[in-house]
Structure formats: C-alpha cells, structure tokens
Amino acid sequence: MPSHRPGKSATLPTSLTQPEAAKMLNVSARLVRDVLAMGARFRLKQLLEEAGMSQSELERLSGVSYVTINRMVANKTAQVSLRTLDALSKALQCGPGDLLEREPKGRRK
C-alpha cells in the first residue's frame, strides 16, 4: 500500500458524479448527496475512543500524518483525500463512510 504523503490533500474530481463518489467510498449515493448538501463532520474522535486507540497509534497503523489526524479529530479539516479516508478506515477496521456523519442543521458555519 503506498504511504500517505503528509500535506497532500485532494478533493474529488469535479467530473465525478455522486454515484461514482459513493461507489469509491463504499457508501450510499444518498449519503454522498446529503453530505454535499448539508455539510459533514468527522467521527474520528469517537472511533478512536471506541477502538481504545491513540492518535499516534492511528498514525503508525495508517501512515497518515499526526497533524492530519489531529485536525480531523478536532473537525478543523474541510476536505480530505480518498487515499486518507481509505488508509484511516483500514487502520480502524471500518468503512470509509463510518468516518463521517452529517452535520446537524443549524450547526454549519
């Protein structure tokens, strides 16, 4: 598995359709549509707590930089690459879609 390059973040190509994005992330097209429309936040803090894992341990297992993980835990990241989602979900033994949740209405900045 290629290692994640710290500081490199990519967005989904603009030519990618919502169903194609859903297939790449292994989530429903409805979730992709809802996330794009409503905003999303990361569930990484909860998943780390459930797994009894530290951010440093996740860095070691995933190859994703500690800074990136820390920003995702604090929900200070607006976009993340598919490579990062894939690496984190493999390390946490969950699906990429499990790393995200819809932001409640009225909470989006």
CATH class designation: Mainly Alpha
Backbone CA Rg: 13 Å
Tell me which CATH architecture applies here: Orthogonal Bundle
CATH superfamily: lambda repressor-like DNA-binding domains
What would the average pLDDT be, to the nearest integer?
Answer: 78
Helix content: 40-55%
Strands of the biggest beta sheet: in what spatial order?
1-2
Topology of this structure?
Blueprint: H1 18-25, H2 29-38, E1 40-42, H3 44-51, H4 55-62, H5 66-73, H6 82-92, E2 100-102
Structure described in brief:
The protein is mainly alpha-helical and 109 residues long. It contains six helices and two strands. The model is unreliable at 1-12 (pLDDT under 50).
Verbal overview:
The protein is mainly alpha-helical. The protein has a single domain (18-102), classed as 434 Repressor (Amino-terminal Domain) (Orthogonal Bundle). It is 49% helix and 6% strand. The protein has 6 helices and 2 strands; from the N terminus they run ααβααααβ. The protein starts with 17 loop residues before the first helix and ends in a 7-residue tail after the last strand. The model is unreliable at 1-12 (pLDDT under 50).
Provide the descriptors you would attach to this structure in a database record.
109 residues, mainly alpha, 434 Repressor (Amino-terminal Domain), two-stranded antiparallel ribbon, 6 helices, globular
